[in-house]
Structures are given as C-alpha cells and as structure tokens.
Amino acid sequence: MNKPVIVALDFADDFECINFLNQFPKEEKLFLKIGLEMFCQFGYPFVRSLRERGYNIFLDLKLHDIPNTVRRTCEMIAKWDVQMLTVHASGGAEMISAAKEGLKGSSTELLAVTQLTSLGQDELANELQVPLKSQDYVTHLAKLAFDNGADGVISSALEVPMIKEITSDEFLCVTPGIRPKSAQVGDQKRVATPSRARELGSDAIVVGRPITQAKDGHEAYTNIFKEWNK
C-alpha cells in the first residue's frame, strides 16, 4: 500500500482551492491538509464538502488548551469523519490523553506536534528557553505522546529514526518540511526531500507550495508521489 503524500491547502479562498483540485482526475482521491488559515475562513462546511468529494482530510488545528476543552472539542470533531487531527504535544500528558478520549469511537487518528519545523536550535534555546538539544526535545515529546495514546506525531524527517526507536514501528511519523531539490526552502528550517524522508522512515509526507504554487499542480504532485513511493 502506498504511503500518502498529503497536500497542504494554502489558498486565499475556496474557489481558488477547488480550481486547483479540478486539475486532478476524479479517481485520484487526494489526501488534503486543512490548516488554521483555511479552517478559520471556511470552517466545518468546507471540511464536509471536501469529504463529500471523496478526499481524505488531515485537519491540522494543533489544539492546545486545558484538557477538558480539548476533549470536548475532539468529541465534536470525532463526528466529522476526518482521518487525522493534530494537537500540540507540549500541552502535556493529560491534554493528549483527553484528546484521544474525545475521539473515542471514531476512526480519526490523533497526531501530536513535537517541534514546529520553522523552529531551529537557536529559537529553541534563546526564545523558548528549552535547555535540551532540538532532537532530544522532539524525542521527549514524541515519547510523551506515545505513552498517552496518540497514534503518531508530526516531526521533521530527520528525527523519525529516533522517534521510531523509542516508540514503535507502528507509531506514525508524518513529516512536513518536504521540498524537492528544485524547490526553495522558504520558512522551513528542518527540511528533507521526499526520497530522503522515505529512507528515514516517514509514514506520510506533507507538501504545500511546491505543489499548490506550481504551474502544473497535477504534474508536480505526480513527480513528488513517484519519488516518494519509488
């Protein structure tokens, strides 16, 4: 079974988004990431419309609040039939466990965000005052998520081998910060190519602008998919 290439939607409006999706054959059911920007603009009706078109949905809301609030929010999202949902691992053990409890009875997989790929060692040490090395902080949060019921984590491909080692091979590692060799790095600091992410053991990759801003989005997606699944 092919591991998914998840396309991060980063459009200014839903019309532009649908025009992009219309480039793809109807039988090619994409896995789409809806982040905060698009969700705040269009909300659940947008999620529902994409599910009705047959797309799989990764709802990347990065929930981070007190456990009871997160649990109740997850109880609502559990009814939406999305495939993945994110919380921040830094919300702590009780919050992660509460999120998983809220999703009980649904097939939605809970993923915990470890360290944002826009944050490097300098930001971690100087801005957030975290004394750990970046890879140690990521693996600590991944183990916390694993121990409290999460199905996987969002992390850089570079940390995947270490995460798998301290959790399990079945613990999902979904990797953003993916850039083909020809693409600009942009605001990501810990990046990898699709083939390198596969070598490191990522279970899925998330790609946005190299696909959504390409002249031919379908061709760009196909090339990345082939590199990822070769």
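The record above closes out task 2.4. Task 2.5 opens with a second protein, given below.
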Amino acid sequence: MIRPLRRLRSHAPTRFAVVLWCFVNLLSDLVTVLIGRGPPLLMFAISIPVFAAGVAATLFLNRLRVALARKPAIQYWPAMLLLLVGCSIAIAFVDIMGTRWGALSLYTPWRAWALDLSLSRILTVALIYFWVFSFAMALLWAGSVSDMARYNAAKAAAMETAALRAEATALRFQLNPHFLFNTLNSIASTIVDGPRQDAENMVIRLASFLRASLAADPARTVILDEEAAAMEAYLDIEKVRFGERMIVEIDIGRDVEDALVPHFILQPLVENAVKHGVARTSAPVALRLSASRDQDRLILRVTNRAATDDQATIPAAARTLPKLASTGLGLDNVRQRLALSYNDALLKTVAFPGGFTAEIDLPFSTVANMADPDGQQLLHAAE
C-alpha cells in the first residue's frame, strides 16, 4: 500500500499540470473563438507553445516549492512569490510573442491587437498567469499534504500490524519454555519412579511436538481440528507419566472443526488442567476438551474434574491436594493473545467442587470469511 502512494506523489504533479493547462488553453481559445477573434484551428496551433511552457513552468515551480518547503516561512514565501512572478512574466512573454508571430505570419486580422506591446497589456496577461500559477501551487500543495497523510496512515497501519504480529509472536513463544520446563520435570519424575521405556517415549514425543510447534507461524490462526490434534499430541506426552490417572476426552463437533482459532491458544489451558488437576491428586481425573458453536460465537472449554463423584471411594491420601505454585503466566498469556487478535474475545474461568473449567468465547470464523477484498489474510486469519 505504501509503494503505490509513493508513485502517486511522483506522477500526480505531471498529470495535474497537463490537465490544468489543457483547461486554461481550451478556455482561452473558446473565448477567443466566441468573440470572433480567430478560427479555432489557428487558435489551437498558436496555444501549443503556451501549453508546453505552462506545463514545464508548473513542474519547475512545484519542484522548487518542495525544495523550499524545508526552509523557514520567512525565506519560503518571498522566494515563492519571486518564482511565481518570474514564471508569470515568462509565460506572458511566450503568449504575447506567439500571438505576434501568428499575426505577422499567419493571420493578418490579428495585427490590430496582437502588435500591441503596451505595458498595461503585458501586466494584464502576466497577472492572469500569476493567478493560474498560484492556483496550481495551492492545489499541488493540498494534494501533497493529502498524499502524505495517506502515506503516513498506511505506514502507521503497517507498523502497527508488524508490532501486533511481533507481540503475538513473543507471547506465543513464551509457551515453549513454560511447557518445556513442566514436561522436563515430568520426564525427570518418570526416570526416577517409572519404567525407562516410558521416559524414552516421553522424550521422543516431546521432540516431535516441539518440532511441530516451532515450525508453525506463531502469529497465525489454524483450524480448530488442527489445534485439537496438537493438544492431543501434548496430552499423549503427559499420559505416559500419569497413565490411567488421566482420562482424556476430546469433543469437537463437525460444525466447528473448521473454525479458526489462534495457534496453540489451548495449550496453556490444557497444561494448567494437567498441572493443577491431574498432578495434584493420585485419583483418576477426567480432562475434557470441547468446542461448540453459539450462533456467531465459538466456545472452547477445557475442564478437569474428578473421574468419580463419589468422594468416599477416593482414598484420603488421594483427596489431599498439595498446593502447587502457579505464576499465572498461562492464563495471562491467553488473555493477551485474545486481545491482540479480537475485539470481543473473553477467557472465563470457573472453579467448582472437584474440578475447574477454563472457557474461551471468541467470534466464530472460517478461512472463507477471514480474507480481505484483495485476498490477503488478516493478522489473525489463517495463512
């Protein structure tokens, strides 16, 4: 968008000068023909030198105007006034001499007025051209201000988009150290307490998961089906550690599986559910990831709850939940990413006896309705 505006600023003065002097010469020729002073074709031929000189002088004045714009007003205005007066006198000379040559060489009826070189005639013609040049400079100045405003607006928009993308990227990559820290702790626990094969499986799955995570564009969105698959891969890693203690349920309806969501937006919620739900008890915990559509809204839920409602069947040691430290990084990260991508997306959390739910409410959209008119994807559109 910025480059076309640059081309517009460079070519607009030429187009403007040509149109302006076409209008000036046509108006002058029309008036001359209407008062019966000369034939149309002859008037057109005589006006060609004035047209060429007028266009050249207008472009010359505009270049000097741009160059002088950096000067203080006390230097700018006197210099522009002198330039306008000088160009007006020069074009008046071209006009009067061209008409004089036409009267002597081509059309003798013009001699009565064309040979008049009185000071009053010269000043009158020069004053007309002075107003023409002043009008031209005023319009070119207004056009340059408008173009610069649009250019600056486009540049600001591009910079804002780049800043938002950089911020989204930074937020996305905050997840990797956080997730990696927790997973390495899980691997360390498995090495100490579990079979060696389980630890090896966790390392292999972690490597595969991180490869897919790092290869993706952090600022883009993906279809929900792809996001759910990534979360399932993450949960496979944790299931090696927790085994039958973690019961995973994924419920993504066909009507929402092609909906767009920010890439890895569910990962910190799933990670929190594992850390604060499954890891805090030795009893079975059901971790459920679901998605549904409510008119034009997409509702994503991550819920962890005790696998049984009969608390009496759970050993006392299992019901004693050790307090785990939490930095709140995951939930804050999700809120910030939603704020960057949408104007009306929300993250709600609800604690209830035996469990916890994190719910994301965001606009429902698909790839088909997220492209702009030029086919370019928006910042939070799938790429």
